[in-house]
User: Fold this.
Amino acid sequence: DRDTLSFGRVVDGIDAPGVAVGERQGLLVVEAGEEPGVRVEVGGRDLGAPPVRVALDEGRHEVVFLRGDERRIRYLFVRRGQTRIVAP
Assistant:
């Protein structure tokens, strides 16, 4: 679904001090939300509590927001050389 894949906002370029982003990768930034106790998983990898910055290969990715027993799943597309910014 196109709307789901465009979740968040996109910024051209990468500004990620401390995060190694490869030539064929983009950056996903999960901002801190208003809900406490949220954890982030991307592709089955637990990335912990936001804020989170992670380099991802270009393509479609599953992002899961976990809070207690609640799981919210989003799918988004990351393009190389771009930063996608989302909030839980």
User: Anything to note?
Assistant: The chain is about 5% helix and 55% strand. The chain has a mean pLDDT of 90. The first helix runs from residue 2 to 5.
